[in-house]
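Re: that chain you flagged

S.,

Sorry for the slow reply, it's been a week of failed gels. I finally had a moment to sit down with the sequence you sent. For the record, here it is as I used it:
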Amino acid sequence: MDVRLLWAKTSREQPDLVHPLICHMIDVAQVADAIWKQVFPFQQRTDIAHELGLTEEQARAWFVLWAGLHDLGKACPPFQAQHERSKARLLDMGLAFPHGIENLLSRVKHGTVTACVLADLLADCLKPPLDAKLAQQVALIVGGHHGIFATSGEIDALYSKQLGDQRWQAIRAELVKTFVSALALDGLQPPSVQEIPPALSMALAGFVSVADWLGSRQEYFPPAGYDVDLSSYVQVVREQACRAVRETGWSRLSSNAEPVGFETMFSVPGLRPLQQRTVELTEQLKEGGLVIIEAPMGEGKTEAALYLADYWKRTLDQFGLYVAMPTQATSNQMFTRVREVLRRLYPEERVNFQLLHGNALLSEEFERMRLAAGGDETTEGDVVVAEEWFLPKKRGLLAPFAVGTVDQSFLAVLRTRHAFVRLFGLGHKTVIFDEVHAYDAYMSTLLERLLRWLAAMKTTVVVLSATLPSATRNRLVEAYSNRPIGGQQRAYPAITWVTSSQSGTLPFPATRPVSLDVVWVPGEPCKTAEILREKLSDGGCAAVICNTVGRAQKVYLELKAQNVVPESDLLLFHARFPFAARERLEQLVVGRFGRDRTGRPAKAVVVATQVIEQSLDLDFDVMITDLAPADLVLQRAGRTHRHAAPRPARLQTPCLLIVEPAIQDGTPQFGSDSWIYHPYILLRSLLVLKRYQVIRIPEDVLPIIETVYRGETLEECDLNPPLSRRLEKAFGDWQKEIAHSGHIAKQKLIPSPDQSGMSVLEYTVELQEDNPEYHQSLQALTRLSEPTVTLVCLHGSVAQPALDPDGRLPVDLGKRPDCALARELARRTVNLTAQPLVSHFLGEAPPAGWREHALLRHCRPAIFDRDGICRLANGYVLSLDAELGLIVKKEG
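Prediction finished late last night. Pasting the structure tokens below so you have them in one place:
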């Protein structure tokens, strides 16, 4: 039988020009070989060989063999019948196509056929044969290369006429033998294990998928035709595979033999106490592990984490780095910082560095790096670039270095298509999780499962937080180490670390201890204006942090009406501005109130929501904040007197003014804040913070956090009966919410790596990653929040929408936009969570021209008239104001 007559792919330009299945299998095998040699660090190759009970060379050969056999399932009647010319040749060769085969074309997945037939062929066609149980597992892993593993029910449903008769079985066996012989892979020593460990199962699945993606690129592997000479083809393809891998920018970088000093790595004159402790810790860390750094803002946690990542890359041969941030805005800020560090670490090498979040393509810095990767003359000579092949969302985590949102890493453990590719991408790297104290119960559940997998994937981890409750910290340590951790010293600020054989805590002093005066103030906007007028009478820069956009808009308008500061120095910053406007505001806020004080105004106020709460390096002379959970109040307070700098006479002493909730029937009323933060935590935070007239940082941070979250009785507080009853009820509701969140999270997670190698492959739900039209039970939620809709703010009318109010830049909603227009549309997006608005807009289909566009397919247009008004049929009115952002009102 001539196996070259089995087709796998056709030419994009000439459908009659085929690429034989045997050739595609050789392509992917050679790419797999190149990945093993050019991408995998030495330690990763060694670990794989150890887990299989083989030498490194034997392990490489098996990985190459398994990857090449991924498309064996295409050798079946339903698939081969899809190409008429090939079908005719196979009929002439005596292969039969059952009657009605056309009805099976869409129902038979060739990956499932691979999972069904490969196990027996691995046992029958290899000498010596592969263990039957191991062969069954490999077949399931390799057959899942399109993102989902076949279920036993799907495999059982492949009755004989779908797989073909004895002649089809014979040609599949001949295909395997020809493939093994062509690549000289016969006579391999079988692995000494009967089951591949769970983490290696996922790594192998990811490896096969990626090898298939690269091996399917026709610019490197064009259709070879039926008459190809296989012996010469193997040699040509070997060189092409090496080039394909090399030109993606995926090849590993060299590691510095000697450590780069902290001062050089970060261009700083000296080390802070935390950073000195980090250097000392590296003298104890002889293996990979988890490090948790808890410290106030401004202590240099980020630098310490990046130093650890570089240390592990040198000493453990880790492949690279992923920095997981809480938001897109903080990701953009961190991206710039990490890019500068990479330039110093690798001045002579081309570094592939990616930005991973939903709006990454709108970043001007990232766009310049993409152009640099393509050889743009204006960026020539830049060593840190963004290679194009890694831009699709499933490939981003494969890049050696990346910064993005934590959501991208959570998708590695949610039941999504190709989740194992993301896990494979995170393996043998260092992952840094920043601002972990901001995670709720749902996100924490996802993080714990992810930590367990990262430990199994030999990934080192650094967790950064202003502070964590002891219970949270212990759960993270136990999730990574898979063993209970008790008896450790609790200190703050401190570094907690754990490896497979050691654990410990290293306390350190704060660089700049701060004592904050705490003052409780009324929440009416007019009172806020009075307070700020008095506080800023000698000048100074203030921040007002509100919990909701609506309240921020009201406070801003009151401050403007009372002329508290010059209008040009009064800023409103929240998340309900279109993307481009929000980006400009963020740059303006950082430019005026960041570390560089050259542009700092003499007297100014920023009214903001939580957008300035995390990661942005901002410094204010005084702050007013709405009540929030105590840890977030302290996080906000970290933006007060953050830097050593001169202050106005009235603001020499750091002061935090907290809005006191109104009291009704003896208990505080939280209003809409209770939609954002749980009433129990708000109550506990209020009662605990009321104890303090002065908060000393860092001394008081741990007692405050522990008292709020530990649930101990507040004997020292005068709890009246209504308040006591409300606290008790709120505690019960909080416990139920935590249990409910954890239950939902566990339904969406892939199995733990502590299960058997076969068990981790048996999840059957394929969740949708980003489609808001699906019910939440079918979505791969990285955060448990209200459904959201993304609007593109346009002007004009439904019949004639435009980018601008004057209509000079019309938009055809029925036509797919080009790249430039798509970017312009995406820069006008804003997210809404108000459920009547979400229901209204999701009830309308996306414009025809947007449905297949990656940036716009889940967006809806909101069209504003010349007055900036968009009236909806459900009675809601949206106002788009350049100063206030998007305003939502209900008519009447």
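What I noticed first: The chain has a mean pLDDT of 92.

Talk soon,
D.
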